[in-house]
Protein: NADPH-dependent FMN reductase
Organism: Salegentibacter salinarum
Amino acid sequence: MKKILAFAGSNSSTSINFQLLKHVANRIQGHEVKIQDLKQYDLPIYSADREKEKGMPIGATIINNIIKEHDALVIAVNEHNGNVSAYFKNIIDWLSRLDRNFLDGKKILLISTSPGKRGAASALEYTKGILPRFGGEVIESFSFPSFNDNFKDGEMLNEVLDMGIQDVLTTFSHQLEE
């Protein structure tokens, strides 16, 4: 049994990506899954001057330690104007300054959603490309389109998307055992 950390790259209290994350994380079988809300850790906007003057914020150290305690990650990637949110990018910036290989040895499942038909696909693709730079291995990814039409009250309404999520979870779980 592997320890999996699940978190969203959104700081919105009504995040649809966090809603999807909780649903997906609760479907993972045979592993210990911890859903973490990163909003509780204060991270100022990254600045080389701020880092030089004040060092690493304690929030970055805490998040880094939590990641190190887990074997794998499930990350829900949100999108703002066709890119990852400034909040999520800021987390990556601080963690990579603390430890360039902060994802070393971590197997990762990426999911994303948006109200639109592309399901935050641009932010998902960006994240798939950047996380390996920090040692992570993206095993699977899934873009969930038209969230408001396909998800309600914690449940998936679209059977095809539900089967797609299950296929991704099955592959991810199998890869964790290798």
The chain has a mean pLDDT of 97. The radius of gyration is 16 Å. The helical segments are 16-26, 48-54, 58-68, 86-98, 121-130, 147-150, 159-176. The CA atoms of residues 37 and 69 lie 16 Å apart.
